[in-house]
Specification:
Rieske_2Fe-2S; Rieske_Fe-S_prot; mainly beta; 10 strands; disulfide bond; binds FE2/S2 (inorganic) cluster
């Protein structure tokens, strides 16, 4: 289990560093998950603000909706991961 879904706020997200996954909630009740490893130089992304996943190393930003690049230097999207949210808990499939 990654953790309680209550840890992932709407329009925000949470990075699970050990599991290397970032979970977002761009729409209330709809959770998304992506690898947390930046496609630029493989730093781990640091935070999610206003539906943007932000890498602290060089400032790349990715969409919290689909993982696409919103701002470089990264050029490749974050790959999606599959999660299950049930009974208030998030599990990586
Ligand atoms: S490693 Fe993420 S922006 Fe460079």
């Amino acid at each position: 289990m990654l953790g309680p879904s209550a840890d992932v706020a709407v329009h925000s997200g949470k990075v699970y560093t050990t599991e290397q996954v970032v979970v977002t909630q761009p729409v209330a009740g709809s959770f998304k998950a992506f690898t947390s490893i930046c496609t630029h130089k493989q730093c781990q992304v640091g935070s999610v603000e206003n539906d943007q996943i932000i890498c602290p190393c060089h400032g790349s930003r990715y969409s919290a909706v689909d993982g696409s690049v919103l701002k470089g230097p990264a050029t490749l999207p974050l790959a999606p991961k599959t999660i299950t949210v049930a009974a208030g808990k998030i599990t990586l499939d």
